[in-house]
Amino acid sequence: MSGKSVAGADHGGADQPNEALRTIVAEVLRGPRYQGIDPTIVLTLARREASKGRSTRDTVKAIKTALHQIAGAYLTQGSERDLPYADWLTELAQNTDRTATCREIMRHHASTRERLPHLDAVMRVLRDALPTGARPLAIADLACGLNPLAAPLLGLPTEATYYACDLYSGMTDFLRAALPLLEIRAVVEMRDLTHAIAPPPTPAASAVTGASTGKAGDTQRLTLSSHFDLVLLLKVIPCLDQIDRTAAPRLLAELDADTVVLSFPRRALSGRDVGMDATYAARAATLLTSPWRISARHDFPTETLWIAIKG
Ligand SMILES: C[S@@+](CC[C@H](N)C(=O)[O-])C[C@H]1O[C@@H](n2cnc3c(N)ncnc32)[C@H](O)[C@@H]1O
């Protein structure tokens, strides 16, 4: 890795990264912690950090720090590739008490781990936010972490579909294989939410996985641009804001959804109370303006949920 400055490195056109940026992205992806992370978020950060006039080494370091703050810090194992996904799938396939297994797996992501003591109550709130009409339900769980493993608690009808995305390929591959074992029809993809919803993902990534057979079904297709009855953005806004303050408002404007649930943490990951309630109540109020209308707020010990409906 060179130590020379990468200021003004992005001379490869609006979308095409030049050689210096490609080198930086490759260097970040070479490290054990971020091998499986979406390269688009790395490139976004590389563009931002490379404009600051630091050395390549310091630019790579700054990108890794940012990735740690938005993603790596939540993984108990330290490195995403060390999570025992294959073992978990074996356990889920063999185990009869899948609820207990899912709870155990959810302990490996700090965000779901801190929700476990009040998981049932949170999921009851989400279930109550679902419409009661007859048409098949579609739910999206964005920047999902391991939260889709709690989807069975929503008591969804079998024809309902569940879309989930996060930044890690290993995690999304795992969830794509695990959700059918929990009888959830799911589309799971690796996606960076700081980018606009279009273009749609590849057909392979958007094939709905059949709940009963575990095989990719082609009867229905879900993408982030589909219509959703309910969209979950649980504890993700602070992560998006760290990368781009315009990303969350853009996402909320682009989503085709009847109801969104935003949640914000009440404590830092360290457990400290650093006055987040007031800061995030203000952020929720700023984000959930027309066409959104806040219909309810629910305070749990570790997070506050804001439910908003369109119109
Ligand atoms: C605080 S955790 C919340 C996880 C989950 N929503 C929950 O509440 O349990 C933030 C999650 O967002 C993901 N993430 C952060 N930035 C993202 C982005 N730009 N696009 C997609 N996912 C992102 C991280 O990998 C991490 O799993």
Derived structural class: alpha/beta
Rg: 19 Å
Work out the strand percent: 15-25%
**Average residue pLDDT:** 88
The CATH architecture classification of the largest domain is 3-Layer(aba) Sandwich
Query: In CATH, what is the homologous superfamily of the largest domain?
Result: Vaccinia Virus protein VP39
The count of strands amounts to 9
Binned, the helix content reads 25-40%
Low-confidence stretches: 1-13, 202-207, 210-219
* Heteromolecules bound: S-adenosylmethionine
First-residue to last-residue Cα separation:
52 Å
Element string (H = helix, E = strand): HHHHHHHEEHEHEEEHHEHEE
Question: What CATH first level of the largest domain would be assigned?
Answer: Alpha Beta
* Domain module tally: 2
Spatial strand arrangement across the major sheet: 3-2-1-6-7-9-8
Shape: globular
Sheet having the most strands: 7 strands, mixed
User: What is the tally of helical segments?
Assistant: 12
CATH topology of the largest domain: Rossmann fold
Overview of the molecule:
With 311 residues, the chain is of the alpha/beta class. The chain folds into two domains: 19-70, Helicase, Ruva Protein, domain 3; 81-310, Rossmann fold (3-Layer(aba) Sandwich). The chain is 38% helix and 19% strand. The protein has twelve helices and nine strands. It has helices at 19-30, 39-50, 56-70, 85-94, 98-106, 110-115, 119-128, 169-181, 203-206, 237-243, 247-254, 276-287; strands spanning 138-142, 161-166, 185-190, 207-209, 216-221, 227-234, 256-265, 292-299, 303-310. A seven-stranded mixed sheet has the order 3-2-1-6-7-9-8. The chain has a two-stranded antiparallel sheet with strand order 4-5. Helix 1 crosses helix 3 (56-70). The longest helix has 15 residues, at 56-70. The structure holds S-adenosylmethionine (SAM).
